[in-house]
Amino acid sequence: MLSLSVERVDILQFLSEKTITYDYLADYSKVKRFYSFSPAEIDQALSVRREQTQKADRRRIVEALLSYNRRIGAGEATLQNIRLLSEDNTYAVVTGQQPGFLTGPLYTIYKALTVIRICERLNESGKERFVPVFWSATNDHDIAEVDHTFFIDKDNSLRRLTYIFAERFRGGAVGPIPIDRESLSAALGEIEAGTYPTEFRDSILAMVREAYSSTWGEGFAALLSKLMGRMGPIFLDPEAKEIKESYSHILSREIDEPLASTKLANEAGDEIEHMGYKRQVFKSPDDTNFFLTIQGKRTPVSFRDGRFWPNHDGADKGYSQDDMMKWLKERPEDFSPNVLLRPVVQDYLLPTVIYIGGPAEVAYFGQLKGVYEHFQIPMPVVALRSGATIIEKRIARVIEKVNSRFNLDFIDLRNDVEGVFSKIVKESTDLEGICGKVKDDLDKALAPLYDAASQIDQTLVGLLKKMQGNMVHLLDQVELRLVRSAKEHNDTIREQLTNARNNLFPDGAPQERRLNILPFLIKYGPDFVDELHRSLPWEAGTHYVVTIG
What we know:
Distance between the termini: 11 Å
Helix content: 40-55%
Radius of gyration: 28 Å
Number of strands: 14
Number of domains: 3
Structural class: alpha/beta
Strand order of the largest sheet: 6-3-2-11-12
C-alpha cells in the first residue's frame, strides 16, 4: 500500500478573482440570483426533488443503463446502483466529461471520485439513497479536444500523446467512432517508449487495449470503470437510442418554443456581464439549443422566418415546426442537445440533487436558472469538483530542499521558472537588500550636496540628480550581473525547479488539467485510484496536495 500524505489548500488560489465561479465559492451572496441553491443547501434541493415527480420513465432508463454498463464490463457495485435508481427514494449525484483519450486529464478522475465520495457520505444517514452517475459526453463532436493527452516522460519532459482519427469522422459525434487498432497501438507505443519499465506497465497497457476494443465512447467509459468499478459509478451514454428516445420530450418543447431557452440564457449572460463577470456563452438570438446529425455530421440549427435551418454546407432547405416534430418522432437518434440544453436533459432523465462540475461548468450553470424554470425541471445544487496536485517523492525532495532555504511553496511554481529562480537567488545572496542599502546610503551621502547646491546655484541640483540617476543605473546593472553570475553557480537548482514545474504545472497549467493517469498507474499499480479514493476526503470545492512517500 502506498504512503500518501494529504494537505488541504485553498482552491481559490487556482481561480481567477474576477470570475463568477470565484465568488460562487468566496461570497455566494454576490451571485445567488443565478442559482437555485448554494453548495451547502443539499437538504433544500432534496426537498424540492422529493416533491417533483420524475418525468422520464425510470424503468426504461434503468434498462438502458444496465445494458450499457454491462457492455463496458461494469462490476456488480455499479449494476446494483443502477437497480436502486428504479426506486423513488433514490437520487443521483452527477458529473460528466467529454470522452478524452485514455480518460483525458487527471481532473476527469477527480470528478468521478468527488461524486462517489459525496454519495458515500450522504448514504451514511437518511432514508434516501444516492448513486454516482458519470455522464459521458459521447455526442460531443470536437475531436481536437479529445484526441490527445499529456504525460511527463522519463526525461522529465512534457509529451503530447495523440490518437489519429480518420478524417471522415470529423464533425460527427465522437462516441460511436470505432477504435482504430493501428492508431491505438502507436499511441501506446509512445507511452511504452516514454516510461521506465515497471512490474505494472505491461498489465496496465493490456488493460487499456482491452478497454479500447470497440468504440471511442465505450473505451473511455470502460477504462474508467476498470479503474474505479468497485466504487459503483454508473456510466451514461447519451448517444444510446433508448436514452435519446427518453428525452425527446425536452427536444419537442425546444422545437415548440425554439428560441425561448436561448433568450433566457442570453438575458442571464447580460446580467452576469453587467456585474463585471465574463459570461460563459453567448448565443445568436436565432440559435436553437439542439443539433441535428446530417450525413454523419453534428449540425447546429437556427430558427428564423418561422422555419428551422440546419447550418451545414449546402443547406438550402428550411423545415417547419411540423416537419421538425415529425423528424424527431421518426428519428430521435438524429437529435442531441447543445451545451446549454444538456444539463436540462440530464436532470430530466435523472433525479439529480447535486451536479459536480469544473470552474467553467459552474459558470455555465449561472446562465441556466431561467432555462430550468422554463422546462419546469428542478435545478440541482451545483458544486465545484475536488482538485488535487500529486507530488512524487523526487519532486517533494526538491521542494522541501528549496523551501527550507528560500521559503518556496509548490504554488509558486505556477510562475515562470526564471522569475522564481531570480527571486531565490536574490534572497539567497540578499543582493536586493544590499543594493537597496547602497541606494539608501547614496541618498544620505548626497543630501548635504543637494542642500548646498539649492542655496548656491539651483542649476546644480539638476546636475546632481542626473549624476545620481547614472549611479543608480550603474548599481542596477551591477545587481543584474551579480544575479546572473549567482544563477550560473546555481544551475542545479534551476534544473530541479524546471523539473518540478514540469510535473506540477506543466505548460504553466495546474497538473490536473494536463497530465494523464496512466503513467501513475504504470509506476504505482492498478490500485492507485483506489488509494486516492481511500486517502482523500474528496470534498467538493477543495484542493488537495498529495505527496507520495
